[in-house]
TrEMBL record:
Recorded superkingdom: Bacteria
Protein name listed in UniProt: Uncharacterized protein
Length: 91
């Protein structure tokens, strides 16, 4: 399994977490399910569920010239969300 680090920008906050999964697509699903909304200012359960639905249909964009780094932008009712995903080596 690979480790993925996620950086989510949402309404002025930056939230960082990691998951281990076999590929980026399943890592995004696991990450979105594991979001702790008590840690995310302005996000409620409805916003988390909406984000999970939206991410099922989004393909992350690889960053040119930077291997193993992707970005996603989306809008949910609660606001604009930017997510960076990085495939991270274990130390």
């Amino acid at each position: 399994m690979d480790r993925y680090t996620f950086f989510m920008e949402f309404r002025g906050g930056l939230y960082i977490s990691q998951v281990k999964e076999v590929n980026l697509r399943t890592a995004i699903v696991l990450w979105s399910e594991s979001l702790d909304i008590t840690e995310i200012k302005f996000m409620k359960e409805k916003g988390k569920l909406e984000l999970q639905r939206v991410l099922q249909n989004e393909d992350p964009t690889p960053i040119d010239g930077v291997p193993n780094v992707w970005i996603l932008h989306t809008i949910i009712k609660a606001g604009f969300v930017t997510i960076h995903a990085i495939k991270t080596a274990d130390c």
